[in-house]
Amino acid sequence: MIELVEYLVSSLVPDGDYTVEQRDGNGASDIVITISKNDIGKIIGKQGKIARAIRTIVKSAGGRSSVKYNVVIEEKNEI
Q: What span, in angstroms and rounded, lies between the C-alpha atoms of 40 and 35?
């Protein structure tokens, strides 16, 4: 599932600074996209439509598995 999210993010932000990681929990798995402040708007989209579409694709792709997937978008802390 993480490969799918990496493909989607790399298509939206080809030269961006981002990481995609998976965090496992109780029956659910969070796929965390950490992206720089300059590129976060490309992932969220107008009124959150692109983020909603990414979440819908992930939930549809993971429908047959027993694990629920959640997509979390975080801003990268730049020092």
A: 6
